[in-house]
Amino acid sequence: MATTASPSTTTTPRSFLSSPSFSLRDLGFDSDNLSTSIQIARRRAAHLLKHPDAKIISLGIGDTTEPIPEVITNAMAERAHALSTVDGYSGYGAEQGEKKLRAAIAATYYADLGIDETDIFVSDGAKCDISRLQVLFGSKVKIAVQDPSYPAYVDSSVIMGQTDLYQQDVQKYGNIEYMRCSPENGFFPDLSKVPRTDIIFFCSPNNPTGAAASRDQLTQLVKFAKDNGSIIVYDSAYAMYISDDSPKSIFEIPGAKEVALETASFSKYAGFTGVRLGWTVVPKELLFSDGHPVAKDFNRIVCTSFNGASTISQAGGLGCLSPEGLKAMQDVVGFYKENTKIIVDTFESLGFNVYGAKNAPYVWVHFPDRNSWDVFAEILEKANVVTTPGSGFGPGGEGFVRVSAFGHRENIIEAARRLKQLYK
């Protein structure tokens, strides 16, 4: 299946950078005003200034809290120590990642799906690869995103010059298709109402809603992409949290290799948010409209902008994919899922409608007819608990807050107690 998105290496991207007066603010992109994480940090700091003795519990940012399993750190330590020896030293490695790790990723996550090591690019994380993919696609494409969705998709699109001005009245950028995902449609967009775009960013399980798309839904998405000549960028960063029969990879869907690529990460499985290690799968079957393989252009981008993931991180990745490492990661995921249950039980006992959670480390809580930032402020001021306002993930998140299950157990229990006291 040839897609109509053009390879960036053969086009001349529109660029605003030729003007010395250009600023991202010209598009309405103001990092101070539009970054939810910056606003949260500032409001938290202001709260502590006002209440210096407050014991704040953060259930906001999706950062892991539990130690990396020792079987994994031992692998990194061994590789690090080897670098101090003549036989163990290594310099630059393959930009695409060590062959052994790429083979292990293919065997562990894509067995029987027609993906092999040559389709896999090891990286310093899925977020970094999202930006590299935007460079690949260039500035002349139009993207679609779930609404709500992980902000990096929209932000990287703005930075690449793909969008029009920010529309304050609807809280959207021009030239981006926001696919509404809500309780009413089961958090899956009505594709019959979605116009054609070049690129479709789709995360399952979704951040922030926690919703995992079913096999039937992903089959619809793949058909939609084929019919429209679109490329799906499938973000599977939370696949290991899936506990039902929802697909863990887009490549479980027949025909997906012709229209999709997939990003993934060790961050939320092994606690690698600081270590930085992920991968992107670009199948050989994925072609641009002129028949040019997408993987060839992505390889050019990677080799130009990246010297490869740290050898120490990659050793950790191999540790993750050992039998002992896989068991240890499953234990870590299980711990956070237990935290999720505590949070869900808390809000449900208070009468709130709660979504997600079953297949993700996030709880999506509905506060009908409330402003998300007002709810955030109320919980911070009265319970000393940080959450994330749903509107930070797009206009479809208004009226919700995301509560993260990443936290020490004692903090989760204490936050639950405070929330019960606040909303009893």
TrEMBL record:
Q: Which domain of life is it from?
A: Eukaryota
GO MF annotations, alphabetized: pyridoxal phosphate binding; transaminase activity
Keyword Transferase listed? The answer is yes
Instruction: Please give the name of this protein.
Output: LL-diaminopimelate aminotransferase, chloroplastic
Q: Please list the coiled coil stretches.
A: none
Q: Does the keyword Aminoacyl-tRNA synthetase apply?
A: no
* Aminotransferase class I/classII large domain ranges (all copies): 55-419
The family line of this record is: Belongs to the class-I pyridoxal-phosphate-dependent aminotransferase family. LL-diaminopimelate aminotransferase subfamily.
Write the record's keywords in alphabetical order, separated by commas: Aminotransferase, Pyridoxal phosphate, Transferase
Q: Name one GO biological process term.
A: systemic acquired resistance, salicylic acid mediated signaling pathway
